[in-house]
User: Fold this.
Amino acid sequence: MGNTGTAPGAAGKQASPDGFRLDINALRALSVIAVVGFHFQIPGFAGGFVGVDVFLVITGYLMTTKVLNDLRRDRFSLWTFAMMRMRRIYPALAVAVAASVFIGWFVTLPGEYLKHLLQALSALAFVSNFAFNSDSGYFAMAAQTKPLLHTWSLSLEWQFYVWMPLIAWLVWRLASRATSGIRAVTIALQVFAVLSLAWCLWVSQHDAMGSSFFSLRARAWEPLAGGLIAAAEIRRRAEGAKASRLESPLIALAGWVLIAGCTVYPLPEAGWPGMLTILPILGAAMVVAARQGAGEGSLLGLSPVQRIGDWSYSIYLWHWPIWVFALSWLAVRGYEVGSAQKIAMVLASLALGALSYRFVEQPVRTQRDFWTLRRLLTASSVSFAVFAGFVSLAFLTHGFPGRLPEYLLPAELARRTNTPRDECFRNANSTKQTTETYCSFGSTWAVRKVSAILWGDSFANQYLEPISQAALGNGIHGLIATQSGCRAFIDDVAGNAGDPPPCRQFNRSTLDFVLAKAEPSIVVLGSNWGSAVEISAITSKLLAAGKTVVLIMPLLNFGFDLPQRWIENQIRAGKAIDEWKVEAGPGVTMRPLRDEIARVLDRYRDNPRLVVVDPQSVVCEQGSCYLVRNGQANFRDTAHISNVNASQYRGLFDAAFRAALRAGTDVEAKKD
Assistant:
C-alpha cells in the first residue's frame, strides 16, 4: 500500500493534468482509515478491508500515468522507474520491519520468532505475498500473531511495478508512433485486465484454500483498472480530444458513496477477491476518472484529510504491528481490548505514521544530495545482508530460546503445528505433497493380510502417531485418507450439499475405494463431528458392507488457544504451571453431542464390528479434564491434541485394533 504521490505532500498544487491531485490524496486517506478501522475492529468498518483494493486502483492510475508520460517523452527507463519506487517505499518499510523484529525479540517464542524473521526477510525482498500464501493453511499461525502480514500488499504492488512497465515498454517499442504506442499499450493492458478478472472470478469459486487473496494474478485487474483510466486520459490529450464525460461531480459523488458503502457493509471475506470486489474497484475508478474535488477549499482539501493522505503509507506500515503486539501485551496482563485501548492504538498509528513520514520518507525522498542513489542502494544492500545473517544465526540457535524464561518452552513445543505426516495430509483443495493416492502406516502388507484406513479430517489425523504405533504392534497395514476441514460423511445422505466440492469428491472417492474390495476391512473414523446423523449414516453404510468400524468420539471443546493461554498464565504467575485442569462440564466435554451419538449407535451395541474409542478417558478423570499435566500441554491449539503427548492414546487404539481383529476372526469363523 505504498504512497504513490508525485509531490512532496498536500501542499503541492495541481499545476498540470498529471500533477498532484488532492482528491486522490483524500482517497488515500479514506483507504487507510478503512483498513485501520477494519483491523482494529472498530464499529462501522465491517468491510474496511476494501481499502487495500481501492489503493491498488490509485497505484495503477498513478504509476501507469508516470510510465506512459515518460514513454511519450522518450525518457522512460526501467531502472530509473524501479529506483524511484524503491526510494519511495523501501526506507520506511525497512524501519518498520526492523522495529517489529526488535520488539519480537522480547515477546515472541522461538518458533514463532523464526517464522517472523522469515516473513520479515520476505517483506524486504517484496515476496511476502508468496510467503504468507504458503503459511495460510488450516494449521497456520493466526493472523493476529503475524506482525508483518499486511506487507503482502506491498509485495504485490512491487510485482506490479515490475511487469506493468516492462509490458508497456515492450509494446511501445513495437508501435511506430506515440499515438499508436498509447493505443497498443491500452489494448495490452485491457487484455491482461480481462484475463486477470476472469481468473479471479473463476478461482474465487473453485479454490477452497483462498490462495488468490495474495495473488497478483488474481488481483492485477485492480491496479489495471486505474491504469486504463490513465491510458485513456493520456490518449485523449495526445489526440487533442475533449475531456471525458466521466469528469463529472455526480460520477465522483457516486464513487465516494459506493466506496463508503463497501467500507461500512459487512462484505464476506471468504472468496475475496471475487465478484463483489468489482464494487469498490468501480467506486475508486469513478472517483479517479471524475477528477473532482481538487480545490484546496473543498472538503477533500481540508488539512486533516490531506495530512492523513500524506501519512497513509507510513500509517499502514505501523498500524498492524501495533495491533499485533498490543493484543499480545494486553492478553498477557489479562486486559480486554476495549474502546480506550483501540483509541490509543489509533493515535499511536497516526503518531508513528507522521513521524515516519517526517523523518524517514521525506528526507530520503527530498534530500537527494545526501541520499544519492549509490548511497541508498549501498545502505539497503548492507542492511539486507546483515539482517539475512541475523536470520541465519536465529536458525542455527533455533530462535534464540535463551531470550525467554525456560518454563515457557514446553508451550512452544506444544505449538509446533505440523500435523502428523503432513506430506500425506490433503489440503482443502484435496492435494498433498506425496504422489501415491494413500500413504501407508503401521505394518507392511506382507506381515498380516489385514489392513485399515484412517478416514476423516485433522481430528482424525491428529491421532496418527498412536494409531500407527498400535497398527504396527498388531501387524496391521494402514492407509491415510485425511483432508483438511473435511469430515468423513456419505455424500448426499447427511445434508452436506453446502460442503466444498473437493471435500465431497474426496469422501465419494474414499468410500468407493473402501467398498470396492474386502480390504481395508477396518475403517477408523475421526472427524470434527457436527451431528450424530452423519455418524449414523456412514457407520450404517460401512457395517452393512461388512467392514469393522473404529469410531473415535469427540474429545474436548474448551474454546481458546491452550498454549497461548498457558503462556499468559505463567507470565502472570511468574513461574511454571505444571498442572492445569478444568471442570468436565457439558460444554467442555460436548455432552449433548456425545449423548446424541450414543443414542444413534445404541442399535449397534451388540455388533462386535463397531468399536468405539473414547479419548476423553485419557485426559479426564474424577470430574476434571487436564489441559496441562506433568508440565506438558495436552493440546496444541483450541482443540487438536499436542504431538508431544499423542502417544498417551496408544493404549486406546491397541485395544481397539485387538477388538477389531477378534471381530474379523469371529465373522470368518461363522462363515466356515
Observations:
- The first strand starts at residue 439 and ends at 442.
- Residues 78-107 form the longest helix (30 residues).
- The two ends are 74 Å apart (CA to CA).
- Strands lie at 439-442, 451-456, 477-482, 522-526, 548-552, 580-583, 610-613, 620-621, 624-629, 632-633.
